[in-house]
Amino acid sequence: KAGVTQTPRYLIKTRGQQVTLSCSPISGHRSVSWYQQTPGQGLQFLFEYFSETQRNKGNFPGRFSGRQFSNSRSEMNVSTLELGDSALYLCASAGLAGGQPAPDTQYFGPGTRLTVL
Amino acid sequence: SQQGEEDPQALSIQEGENATMNCSYKTSINNLQWYRQNSGRGLVHLILIRSNEREKHSGRLRVTLDTSKKSSSLLITASRAADTASYFCATALSGGYQKVTFGTGTKLQVIP
To answer: How many whole angstroms separate alpha carbon A73 and alpha carbon B57?
Structure first.
């Protein structure tokens, strides 16, 4: 089956602008998580959505927001961009496994590389 | 803050040798996963080990988990140049909905 897709793959913005990134999960997966990866901070968890509800949230300012649609596709938005927001943004989807109420294995998309000038 | 810390941060070996990476974490977990990332791309899931398991194998990969020491190790046997990548451990916390937290990563270079 098709993997996780993210659009766009590359993005250049200037400080103060806002940006919306999109993620389409693997068909049938209802959980979508977002991560920010930078050389200095590594992989940081942003938030996770399941069936259109945000279930978990990392320690990021309110400028970072997301949503999930009924078809499980997800978007994340960053408003008032700062230079430090330059990063690789990764989306991961997961499905139910082993009858557990929460997904296990996450499957990652290729990421969106955001550069803020 | 990172839940997991990988050790070493960087590792360089010759093709054919074994590579061992370690991961330590801080809190009780539901499961621990290892991922590989090639040069700024997405992560590829390698293996998942649950908190009630001690060892797991997948092809040339062997993962161990010691919950008493809050540590895990990933062994790649008979390494290949294509194994050159960064390797991350990720932990899913116990209880309720899972929030996966990644470690700092080990950069592995396999020299042909």
So the answer is: 33
Q: Are A35 and A88 in contact (CB under 8 A)?
A: no
Query: Cα–Cα distance between A64 and B56 in angstroms, integer?
Result: 37
Q: Do residue A42 and residue B100 have CB atoms under 8 angstroms apart?
A: no
pLDDT band, residue A81 (cuts 50/70/90): very high
Confidence of residue B3 (pLDDT cuts 50, 70, 90): low
Burial class of A22 by CB neighbour count within 10 A (0 to 12, 13 to 18, 19+): middle
Taking the Cβ of residue A113 and every Cβ of chain B, the question of whether any pair is shorter than 8 Å is answered with yes
Say how far residue B108 (Cα) sits from the centre of its chain.
Answer: 11
Alpha-carbon gap, residue B68 to A104, rounded angstroms:
22
Where do the DSSP E strands lie in chain B?
4-7, 10-14, 19-25, 29-37, 43-50, 55-58, 61-66, 71-76, 85-93, 100-102, 106-111
Task: Write out the H or E segment, with its range, that includes residue A108.
Answer: strand A107-108
Q: Give percent of chain A with pLDDT exceeding 90.
A: 68
Q: Cα–Cα distance between B108 and B84 in angstroms, integer?
A: 5
- B39 close to A (CB below 8 A): no
Contact A117, A14 (CB under 8 A): yes
Instruction: Answer whether A110 sits within 8 Å of B105, measured CB to CB.
Output: no
